[in-house]
Specification:
The structure is a single chain. This protein has one domain: Sandwich (Jelly Rolls). Helices cover 9% and strands 41% of the residues. The chain has 1 helix and 14 strands; from the N terminus they run E-E-E-E-E-E-E-E-E-E-E-E-E-E-H. The longest helix is centred in the C-terminal third of the chain and has 22 residues. It is globular.
Length: 249
């Protein structure tokens, strides 16, 4: 299944009056159970490649791994109190981690209408020597042709890079044996309007469970940017109008 992805830069209105009605954000979270809808409690035995949350996000397995996988179905699991959804692939010893997104696997989250993504929550991201991992795990997230990465740095910090900008992300649940390796990336794509997000795992030294893999814990989206950004756009719009008037005079 192929999705058409729109990543549209929010335009600056050439008017100081930005009359917009804020619509409640769309969101789901597997750990809290918020608005998970048909995706809640999903197991590989349900043999589902796609599900839709109560708030309108559709999660679809768009790549199901290598030859030998058992169908690449959506499946959830809980580690140290954190619940998230990934792909159930090949359960053979030494192969990919079940209920996570391994190299060669992919989940795409789609919305019917493009929105600003306010946060993305990823889980089960660890560092060397935690649950047998050999690397600081890296998640790859794409919108259109633009790719972002979340890289674990230590027990409670990670680095988000997108569009040439890097920021530090603090753990919601630590990347330790006692934690769920959960990180919430706030405003990951700035003011881009997005209707599809693709979640991949990077290719590293190997594609077994000892290398990069992770799961999706939650996503939040909104129709418009934050009020502060809207105000800023209004100021810029007013400045454009004033400049045009000066040129006309």
């Amino acid at each position: 299944m192929k999705f058409q992805t729109k990543a549209i830069l929010t335009g600056v209105l050439a008017s100081g009056a930005l009359a917009a009605t804020a619509v409640p954000a769309q969101a789901f979270n597997f750990t809290s159970g918020e608005a998970v809808g048909a995706c809640g409690g999903i197991e590989h035995t349900d043999e589902l490649k796609s599900c839709t949350t109560a708030d309108g996000f559709t999660l679809t397995v768009t790549k199901d791994g290598e030859v030998g996988s058992l169908g690449g179905f959506l499946s959830s699991k809980t580690v140290n109190g954190v619940t998230a959804v990934g792909v159930y692939g090949d359960p053979s010893p030494g192969e990919g981690t079940l209920e996570e997104i391994d190299y060669g696997e992919e989940i795409t989250a789609t919305l019917e209408v493009a929105k600003v993504i306010k946060s993305i929550d990823l889980a089960f991201m660890y560092q060397p020597n935690v649950f047998g991992d050999k690397v600081f795990e890296v998640a790859e997230i794409a919108v259109g042709d633009m790719i972002g990465t979340l890289t674990i740095l230590g027990d409670t910090t990670a680095e988000w890079t997108f569009g040439g900008v890097t920021s530090i992300v603090n753990a919601v649940s630590a990347s330790t044996e006692e934690g769920g390796g959960m990180y919430s990336i706030l405003n990951p794509f700035g003011d881009l309007l997005v209707d599809a997000i693709t979640f991949n795992s990077v290719e590293m030294k190997g594609d077994s469970y000892r290398y990069s893999d992770y799961s999706i814990a939650g996503i939040q989206a909104a129709d418009v940017p934050e009020p502060g950004l809207m105000l800023g756009l209004g100021v810029v719009g007013g400045a454009l109008v004033a400049a045009r008037r000066r040129r006309a005079a």
